Amino acid sequence: MGAAFFWGAVSGGAVLLGAIISMIIHIPRKILGFVMAFGVGVLIGAATFELLQESLNKSELTNTIIGFVAGAVVFTVLEALITHHGGKHRKRSHAHELQHADNDSSSGSKNSGDRSGGGLGIFIGTVMDAIPESIMLGTTLIGGKGVSMLLLLAVFISNIPEGLSSTSGMLKSGQSKKKIIFLFVSVTIVAGLSALFGYVFLDHADPAVISIISSFAAGGIITMIGATMMPEAYEDGGALVGLFTAAGVMTSVLLDYLG
């Protein structure tokens, strides 16, 4: 059980690592775009080779489709709610400027609420991104197997730019460093607990249940990539991000093959 919590915390802790780096050094937006594009590629591979393949191996195609569609729909609804509460630009390296643009289109009386709501929205969005990924990371340890390095690497890489970009925006919007660190330490703990939940409570679950949960996580991840990560990567990195995404997919292929 300790291993499940540890690996979940490691994957979620990448957000905290990104936050700390953002407080120490400035990273150009183009570099952030390249890193995020690489993370997109690895996540696509992890969702395909790890989660969807696991889902198909555990049960029939119908359960995989049900879980995948449900994950996509749930993430879309949550994304709409998060956007409403100010977390729309949580993965953006220039979140502060975008938040101001949104505020300028709203009434002046809402500006102070948007500022505080943005920090809460970023936190809620980051937690909602972390939970399904961490649960599935925990399930990879079931049966005495080692953690899936493909899924771990995919989540870790994608979380670093999220921590970098969201911290930059939160600092510029007036959030204190202490509060930001506290929020992302909380995300790390939630990720660890989610992985522990996946390991403990899904250990003896029906294969059909694990199949649906695996494809549910895949659906959520793919939808998240399309809604937030890919647009941000291209906006920051330009046309070259396609090469980094391809490199990420090939990295996931190699990790799956070697694993």
Automatic annotation (TrEMBL):
Its main location: membrane. The chain crosses the membrane at residues 6-25, 32-52, 64-82, 180-202, 208-227, 239-258. One of its GO terms (cellular component) is membrane. Signal peptide: none annotated. It is found in: Membrane. Keywords: Membrane, Transmembrane, Transmembrane helix. The keyword Ion transport does not apply. One of its GO terms (molecular function) is metal ion transmembrane transporter activity. Residues 88-114 are annotated as: Disordered. It is a multi-pass membrane protein. Pfam families: Zip (PF02535). This is ZIP family metal transporter.
